[in-house]
Amino acid sequence: MDETICPVCHQPADARLLAMATQLAPTVIRSVARASPDWRPEHGLCPVCASVHQNHVAAQRSHFSLHTSTDPHTSFPYYHREEETLLSQPERLPDYYTFTGAGVAIAFLDSGFYPHPDLTEELSWLEGEWHRIPQRRWRPLLERAGLRIQEYADLTNGAECVGLDAPSLWDGAGDSWHGLMTTGIAAGNGCLSGGRYRGYAPKASIVAIKIGRSGGRIPEEDILRGLQWLLEEERWQRYGVRIVNISVGGDFPEEWSINPVCRAAHALAQRGLFVAAAAGNQGVDRLLAPAQTPTVMTVGGVEDHNRRWQPQIPGATTALSLYHHNTGVVMYHHAPIRKPEILALARWAPSPVLPLSHVFYEMVAIDLVRRVLRGETGDLPPDVLRSGGSEEAFSTPGDIIVDVDHWLPEVWRGLRLRMNAHKWVHRHYQHVDGTSVAVAQVSAVAAQMFQANPSLSGEEVRQLMLETALPLPHLTSVQTGPGLLQPALAVAAALRAKGGPLQGLPISGAALHENELHKRQLHGTLPLHSYSQFENSGCIVYFGLWAPYAQSVSLLGSFNRWRPEALRLHRVQNGWWHIALHLPPGVHLYRFWVTDARHPQGRWMRDPENPNTVESGYGDAHSQIVIP
Q1: Do residues 523 and 464 both lie within one domain?
Q2: Which positions of the chain have pLDDT values less than 50?
């Protein structure tokens, strides 16, 4: 592909990368436009300039949350006036995004469910416009789009109604919200947010089991009924269930071995399923069924304050704090097991709003009014907008007003009160918290792991998650277990476990010692390129991508000024492509460039095995290697 010139830095750049300027983050577009007033995204921008302007935006972020800078305060933390929203799950804990949970079924026990657009195979053509469609058309559209709820069982109030035609699946009653939250966080495709607020398993199948009584009460015997429904006639096997997600808890503490709910959860785990349960949100040393079951993965939570952080930076994890989850110790085979075993994000998680509710439509109205007041829609005349702000704020094409609190203050106050009441973060999403949120993430990563290596048992998935968890030494080990879930590393470990397609291969982004390098070169072709002037400085880094259907894979990054196809990877077993680079000390950003039948001109991909990422200026992050 011929090189052309970046219109901002005037350096050579690949035309395909320049064209990706249309995917830049809005804050970066505004930053470039302020520096180069005649520039437009359609003119193009190279990745180097995108990183420069992204770093400029990042430098403007406050060290402290700005949510208290308004009256009333915003209900969630944020750090830049133009970024008043929530980060997505993958932006906070990067996942192995090439695995989507496809072909894996997750059973959810909850108070109710709703067939949301995010739970379909594909609905991108309705992105952002769901509220404009008459409700009578919702169901046929959802069914046509491929609803991933493969079975629904309403076991409430002692009855049993099975099938997708059950009225309670479609009525949008208030008790449907909690199950919509857990399924959306685990398996939502985020289509009503343009894919941003997706779960880790956006193509997993769902078996939804509604339990409880009128009024939303879920006594322990109803949890038992849901578990027994899966066990009866081995229904879990009929539906292909590999994971059971339980975001509810029992009535009172009891020894697990005599508790019927724990015994039923244990029976499912003994059949090879991965069973995960929320630890509870009271912050006490007490566990309720089924969380005290030794073979159930009990999940607690962390608070990351809606901040970007990088696990490879020394001291970065010290900004994390604990969520107020429950704890406890159970005995199994004469050995103590401390719970929770693992942690996940438990605050500020974006979750779909329940359709059919008044909240759903009010959230859309809030979003519209907010964008009008911020000058994003062009619906207010410039003289009105400038009456309380500076004219300079509107001198840049595509700019927005940021000093909005000094005009129409009573309107903003009323709007923020409604935003806070509904926990608004997006016209179709609100922020949620709790160990119910955390356990849904763990279940989703388990689905990715089963897709990556179907031969794994539930216990093996559990052990791999624990082995790859990120330790949090600044917090009390009694409350953290091995540490924080690492989605990307857990799936990478599953690929290399017994029966996995990458067994015996190094993980991408790992440093290679000389002996390991020679071993790889003796047993196959491993291209080696040097970008270090001195052999005794820096280190050799191994890069790999599992892309069975790719026609070619190359590596591009800051070390070669983002030139696609200059560093070609070699294909080895099972569709794995690899290369080694000798890199000097410093920070190196990179991606893979992949061509296949769907993308003959190529597309770039973040390294799914490397959880160390950095903002790129585009919608997705760059992968990062830091060499001391």
Answers
A1: no
A2: 383-402
